[in-house]
Amino acid sequence: MDKYRKFPLNEGNKKTGYRLSKQLYQMVEASQNEFKPAHIALYFWICQLNNKIGWDRPIIGLPTSIAMKMTGMRDRRFYRRILTELDSFGLIRIVKLSTNQYIATQVELLLTENTHVSNNRTEPYYGNNSRATDSNNESNASSEWDDDSLPPMEPIDESD
Predict the structure, then answer these.
(1) With pLDDT > 90 as the criterion, what percentage of the chain qualifies?
(2) What angle do CA 36, 96, 106 make, to 5 degrees?
(3) How far is residue 25 from each of residues 31, 32, 96, 138, measured CA to CA in Å?
(4) In which element (H, E) is residue 60 found?
(5) What is residue 147's predicted lDDT score, i.e. its pLDDT?
(6) How far apart are the C-alpha atoms of 152 and 143, rounded to whole Å?
(7) What is the pLDDT of residues 50-103, one digit of tens each?
(8) pTM for the complete prediction?
(9) Going from the N-terminus, what domains does the chain have, and what CATH number goes with each?
(10) Is residue 10 pLDDT above 90, yes or no?
(11) 68: which of 42, 73, 106, 116 fits an S-S bond (Cβ 3.0–4.6 Å)?
């Protein structure tokens, strides 16, 4: 490994902020009516807590008062409902709910293996001006690429 590169390029099935946010927004796109801004705020706060501890432990403590303050929630019942809905969506797993204000809720971020959401759209999600296209669009098949690989290279015009 190069001495200037600290992290390997191929991370396998490691949880990263990019993969978790990609998974979240694919689920939001698939079912837009179920997700609220509070779900996204709390989910990203849990991701931020994992970043703070360096992704060392799979299960982390989520203090209710701090999570409510950081996400702008004021009602404990609303916070608890949003937290349990994130669990029912499959984004997190609640290991142990807090019993009082001195014990943190134990949660684990979940990364599903297949986060691809199939949509029946007539035009690509990224729009007509992008090089990324839908798999149904065969007119621009040479420029298809997914998020995990590099984009296709444009031919260089050498007519100078």
Answers:
(1) 41
(2) 70
(3) 10, 10, 26, 26
(4) strand 59-62
(5) 52
(6) 6
(7) 989 888 888 999 999 999 999 999 999 999 999 999 999 999 999 999 988 889
(8) 0.63
(9) 17-109 (1.10.10), 119-151 (no CATH)
(10) no
(11) 73
